[in-house]
Amino acid sequence: MPVYLDSDRCSDDSEEGYTWPLRKPPSQLPELSRCVTIGLINNMPHAAFTATERQFVSLLDAASDGISINLSLYALPGIPRTETSGHRAGSRYLSVDMLWDLRLDALIVTGKEPMTPNLKDESCWESFTKVIDWARDNTHSTVWSCLAAHAAILHMDGIERRRSADKCFGVFECTRVSSHPLMAGAPARFNVPHSRWNGAAEEELAASGYNVLARTADAGVDTFVKQESSLFVFFQGHPEYESGTLLREYRRDVERYLRGEASTYPSAPRSYFSRSAEDALSALREKAMSCRSEDLLSSVAAVLESEKIENTWRRTAVRLYRNWLEYICARRNECQCDGHENVA
C-alpha cells in the first residue's frame, strides 16, 4: 500500500471495515523523488470523521501508483466532538500546533459543518487562519475542501461565500475550462458530488487572481486554484466522496426533520438515485410534510437500503489527485535542484 501513516500513536486495528494505513514503509521504497509527505487536517464531526479519513486515504492510494506517500494526521482545536470521535482524534491525530516548526510537501484540509453564519465566529477560526498562513510558505501545494475553501478565500482575499436559495446537493456535471496541469487527462465533462448551501462567485475569484479550472452549468464554480509560493487548490465539490456518502447525508437530514431538529424536509440529491427511488422518496416527503412522524424513518431507510449507487466520478477524481501528486513530486525535485531547503 503506497500510503503510510507517519505516527507511532495508532494501534494496528480496523474499524467499520476500514484498515488503517501501514505504520512503517517497507525496506524498499521508490527513489526519494517519488516519495512525498502529506498532512491531512480532518475537521469533520463525529458522524463523518472516520469516513472522511477513509475517503481521502483511499483516493490518495488509488492515485499514488509509483509514488510513496507518508501521511500524517492533524486536528484543529476548538471543534466540538463526541467522546468517541474525541478519543479517536486524541489517540490518532496530532494537534496542528505541531506543524509550525515543520515543512511538508503538501497538505489537505477538510471542511466541517458550520456552527455560525459568519465563518470568522467559528471557534476554530484563529487556528485555521494560522494554518493558511503556514501552508503558504511550508508546502508545495495545499488542497482546501468545501467549507475550508470558503474560509481560506475569506481570510486570504476577503471573498465572502454566498448562500443559495436551494442546497447544491447531488452529482453535478462539470465542464473543464482550463488547460492547467491539474486537469491533464481529465475529460471535457465529468461528474462531481456537491453538498453545500454556499458558493464563491466566479467574478470575485477572477478579480483576486484565482484560476477557475472547472464549473457547472447551474451550481457555479467547482474547482479553482491560486498560485503563490504554494499552489492552493480549492474544491467546492467532493471528488473524494464514496458512492454512498450523499445517501448517508440525505438520510441524516431526513432524520433531523422527522425528529423535529430541522424545519425543512431535504430535497433528494440530484442525478443520484434511480427514478423508482426518487418517486418513492418524493411520496414519503409529501407524507412527512403533511404529518411529521418518526415512524416514517423505517420507510425511508427501506428505500435507501435497496439502492445501488453507481460511482460516476471516481475515475476523474483519481486523475485529478494523480496530477496533484505529480505536481508535488516535480516541485520537490525543482527545489532540491535549486538548492532550497528540503521539505521534510
Secondary-structure element series = EEEEHEHEEHEHEEHEEEHHHH
Q: Radius of gyration, Cα only, in angstroms?
A: 20 Å
CATH topology of the largest domain: Rossmann fold
Count structural domains. Answer: 2
- Low-confidence spans: pLDDT under 50, at least 5 residues? none
Percent helix among the residues?
Answer: 25-40%
Share in β-strands: 15-25%
The average pLDDT score comes to: 90
Distance from first to last alpha carbon: 21 Å
Based on CA inertia axes, which overall geometry fits? globular
The top level CATH class name of the largest domain: Alpha Beta
CATH superfamily of the largest domain: Class I glutamine amidotransferase (GATase) domain
- For the record, the CATH architecture of the largest domain stands as 3-Layer(aba) Sandwich
Number of strand segments? 13
The helix tally amounts to 9
Please characterize this protein's 3D structure.
This protein is an alpha/beta fold. The chain folds into two domains: 3-241 and 311-337, Class I glutamine amidotransferase (GATase) domain (Rossmann fold, 3-Layer(aba) Sandwich), CATH 3.40.50; 245-305, no CATH class. Helix content is 35%, strand content 22%. It is built from nine helices and 13 strands. It has helices at 46-63, 83-92, 125-138, 147-157, 202-207, 245-258, 275-290, 297-305, 314-337; strands at residues 3-5, 14-15, 18-19, 35-41, 68-75, 94-95, 106-109, 141-145, 162-176, 189-199, 211-216, 221-227, 231-235. Strands 1, 4, 5, 6, 7, 8, 9, 10, 11, 12 and 13 form an eleven-stranded mixed sheet that branches. It has a two-stranded antiparallel sheet with strand order 2-3. A hairpin with a 4-residue loop joins strand 11 (211-216) and strand 12 (221-227). It starts with a strand and ends in a 7-residue tail after the last helix.
